[in-house]
Amino acid sequence: MRAVLFDMDGVLIDVRRSYLPAIQQTVTHYSRNTLSLEEIRSYRNRGGLNNDWDLCQAVLQDRGLHPLKSEIVSVFQSFYLGPEFNGLIKREEAFIKTETLFRLSRICTLGIVTGRPRPEAEFTLKRLELWPLFPVCITADDIPDGKGKPHPLGLQLALEKVGAEQALYIGDTIDDMQAAVAAGLQPVGIVHDFRNREQQTEILMREGAIWVLDDVNKITEVMK
After folding, report:
1. Is 215 exposed, middle or buried (0-12, 13-18, 19+ CB in 10 A)?
2. Domain definitions of the chain by residue range
3. What is 2-15+92-222's CATH number, 3.40.50.10240, 3.40.50.1000, 3.30.70.580, 3.10.290.10?
4. Residue 1 pLDDT greater than 80, yes or no
5. What is the pLDDT of residues 118-133, one digit of tens each?
6. What global pTM score does this model have?
7. Between vectors from CA 40 to CA 56 and to CA 64, what angle results, nearest 5°?
8. Residue 166: what pLDDT?
9. How far apart are CA 113 and CA 139, in angstroms?
10. CB within 8 A of 53, min separation 6: which ones?
11. Cα 45 from Cα 194, distance rounded (Å)
12. Which of 16, 193, 200 lies closest to 94 in space, CA to CA?
């Protein structure tokens, strides 16, 4: 049996109007200097900063600011979740088309491995009517501290749950590619941002991607 496992943010879900501004607003809360999208990308490309809270902390530390991690998380969540999930999270839309998932589900098992906490993953997947299409969803709540991507544990748990012998993992960061390689999966990169496609494609290929796609819906083409 084959499986296709997906990262969520930047792969299944467009977070350009949710997580990215939440990062920027969190940094601005502590620092007068704004944070550009190019700077966020450069921090991502360091590796080891798959979690947005960790990324915010790294940026602030580089700026000589050292708030407690718990405070950073609280500020970030106030922007992203807002009161009763009315924050930036409600701006999220799907990159993936349901017809793509239906087509894939006929030939393989589908799953998600994401660094999101489970309530946030479920909220968006259910709101966008994608939740029923994924029998397996591994979230940050399933992983002990320190074992998030690029550690392969989340992918290993998903592979065990889907009962597959072979799997693709589709992600958009260095950490995604490294986790897939470490778990013995085939990494597929996604670069939706056309402005930096060539550079990001090169980075993901260097980290082990067997393909890099500019649209997650093209996965059906490489699965033929």
Report:
1. middle
2. 2-15+92-222, 19-90
3. 3.40.50.1000
4. no
5. 999 999 999 999 999 9
6. 0.94
7. 45
8. 82
9. 6
10. 69, 72, 73, 76
11. 17
12. 16
